[in-house]
């Protein structure tokens, strides 16, 4: 049985839509992947972002205090792994060749890297942490939430976050068809440098 009212659902939808549309590292990552590698890369990066958001939703809904106490060491290890992998992805992004790829010739491993980049950057995004772990309980009563409520919240995240990021990917792909290889290379440098910066920050903060 759904315990959330329509006003809460619409408020949550609007808040998630605004959060997803704000300029962020995830937006830059999705856009740069789409512009330099094709829309399919931007799509996979966007899917990674959505999965990261869903993880935060489940953590917020299934007990913040319990997870923090029971899995504290695990999250420290996860930060180290994420920091190293993000730095590695950033280096590969900087060194990657800029090609006009077609959907028929997309490298599966390259797509997995785009997906992983979106996922890990989302897990390290402070806005996502503050929103889902801090503000989500203001839209729903955690103590009386039902499985249908969880499904509605996840669906809302998929529609808002996924829709906005995919729209960014589409715009970047369309504009990417018109920009030079040199400009695409600069976008790769910028995205790669930011990935490395976030990875180093995670390693230092761990």
Topology:
Blueprint: H1 6-21, H2 25-37, H3 39-61, H4 64-70, H5 72-95, H6 108-123, H7 126-135, H8 147-176, H9 181-205
Key descriptive features of the protein:
206 residues
Task: Walk me through what this model shows.
By secondary structure, this protein is mainly alpha-helical. The chain contains 9 helices and no strands. The chain has one domain (7-12, 25-205). It has helices at residues 6-21, 25-37, 39-61, 64-70, 72-95, 108-123, 126-135, 147-176, 181-205. Mean pLDDT is 77; it is low at 101-106.
Question: What is shown here, in short?
Answer:
With 206 residues, this protein is mostly helical. The protein contains 9 helices and no strands.
- Our estimate of the beta-strand percent is under 5%
Helix content: over 70%
**Which sequence of SSEs, written as H and E, runs from N to C?**
HHHHHHHHH
| Computed structural class | mainly alpha
Low-confidence stretches: 101-106
Mean pLDDT: 77
Shape: globular
């Amino acid at each position: 049985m759904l315990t959330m009212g329509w006003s809460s659902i619409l408020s949550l939808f609007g808040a998630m839509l605004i959060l997803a549309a704000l300029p962020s590292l995830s937006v830059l990552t999705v856009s740069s992947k789409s512009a330099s590698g094709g829309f399919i890369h931007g799509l996979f990066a966007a899917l990674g972002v959505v999965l990261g958001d869903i993880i935060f939703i489940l953590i917020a809904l299934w007990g913040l205090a319990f997870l923090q106490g029971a899995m504290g060491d695990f999250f420290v290890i996860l930060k180290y792994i994420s920091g190293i992998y993000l730095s590695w992805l950033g280096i590969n992004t900087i060194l990657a060749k800029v090609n006009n790829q077609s959907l028929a010739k997309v490298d599966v491993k390259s797509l997995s890297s785009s997906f992983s980049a979106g996922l890990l950057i989302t897990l390290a995004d402070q806005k996502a942490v503050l929103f889902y772990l801090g503000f989500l309980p203001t839209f729903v009563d955690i103590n009386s939430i039902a499985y249908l409520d969880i499904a509605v919240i996840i669906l809302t995240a998929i529609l808002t976050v996924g829709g906005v990021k995919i729209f960014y990917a589409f715009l970047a792909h369309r504009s990417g068809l018109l920009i030079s290889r040199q400009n695409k290379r600069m976008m790769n440098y910028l995205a790669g440098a930011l990935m490395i910066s976030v990875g180093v920050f995670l390693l230092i903060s761990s």
